Amino acid sequence: MISLSFAPALSKSKAAASGIALFVADDKRLPASDVLAPHARFLNHALANSGFTGKKGETLSLVNPESSPTYYLVIGLGAARSVKEIHIEEAGGHALAAALAAKLAGLDIVAALPKGVRAEAADAAARIGFGAQLRSYRFDKYKTKEKEEDKPKLARVAIVTPASAKAQKLAEKFTVLAESIAFTRDLVSEPANVLYPESFAAECRKLSKLGVKVEVLGVAELKKLGMHMLLGVGQGSVKDSQVVVMQYYGGRKGAKPVALVGKGVCFDTGGISIKPANGMEEMKFDMGGAATVTGTIRALAARHAKVNVIGVIGLVENMPDGNAQRPGDVVTSMSGQTVEVLNTDAEGRLVLGDCLWYAVERFQPQCIVDLATLTGAILVALGSTTAGLFSNNDKLCAELNRASAHTQEKIWRLPMGPEFDEMINSDIADIQNISNGREAGSITAAQFLQRFIKDETPWAHLDIAGTAWTKKATALTPKGAVGWGVRLLTEWLENDHKAA
User: Fold this and answer.
1) Is 306 a residue of the active site?
2) Burial of 117 (0-12, 13-18, 19+ CB in 10 A)
3) Is 209 a catalytic residue?
4) Residue 461 and which of 14, 71, 314, 476 are 20 to 30 A apart at CA?
5) Active-site option among 303, 349, 451, 487
6) pLDDT tens by residue, 85-116
């Protein structure tokens, strides 16, 4: 992730491979800025004589060999009055992406915004920097023969604003959040031979440096607790299953915590109900929910948030060896309910069910949210930009929707009800882990989870199977792991569950 500086003036660098990025609305007028004044004639001529329209996300790259710096990157914001905080962040991401594409070594981003944009100068500058940081993420640790011309050259990024001192201060919390999102992306990006239950747990242990209490429960402890659903999923792997419990108490002593629970299937072959070979390599990110929970705990602790939060993640591998769970097996959950496993590829709900029961029984949280790359059906319903929301509590949904509207990590609530719940009643056990048909696959998965919510605890389930990974770059995310949910949960917890 790129490091930033904030300055009141442009860099004095004379390097040819440096540039200026600036932002223009759809009226194509330059923003009022003293630092742009020396460049105004060239820029106004270029804007008047190009096809640039200023629509949101549009980029115009200009070269002026008679000036220093040589490159100008003009980023469109669309209608000035419609620009929101998220669009300012995205503009920073577009500027960074354009600088990478131009192979620039240095970039000054002029944070002046067009007339009509409602934004405070220091906050806008900090958000532009945040967007640039998010877009600069790159997972390249395993590239040993990358061509020199393909490597990013960008070594210096400065955000230019008269409010540089205040912007620098505001940017500190954004940088912690960006680092935590990058940490989450790293976890999701790692191959399964590197990141498996034990090594994932080792990454969690590192959070103790931030004041997080970390416990790792091994197979013997999980058996003693009765987590046979979770253990059944992992029994075909040579890698032992683990449950990691992370406790961060930054709020008032005695205030009930919020619990976050994440699905951590470090690799999912489908087990005996094995998946097709095509695309199976992507199943290394089936631990995206656990990664988001871990990244959120990291962000809260590093920001010294005034919240009390518990994170519980179930870490397993779903592999098809001679000891693997079979379709038709019946297991007893920690709650005492029995489950008929009709499909071993519907394993995430088995992991989560035991973890949800454990979190509620041990910590009696004020509310609980789980995240999981749970169902392919959610992609059919909502695509790859929106996560499914399921809940037993309208107030909790309203809180999450407010956070979603602010961060633009989009969620959509889907229905639940007894008619769906009946679809997972088993003939020989209390529950079966899939219904007998293809209908309402995401909903019946959520109904399964709800059976492990104790005492009507307010609960929400986020199915992030479509949002944890992107196959094409966006304004704030290069192709690959998104780190989806860290912003959403951090925003929600700091605004709605502060225990100061």
Assistant:
1) no
2) buried
3) no
4) 476
5) 349
6) 999 999 999 999 999 999 999 999 999 999 99
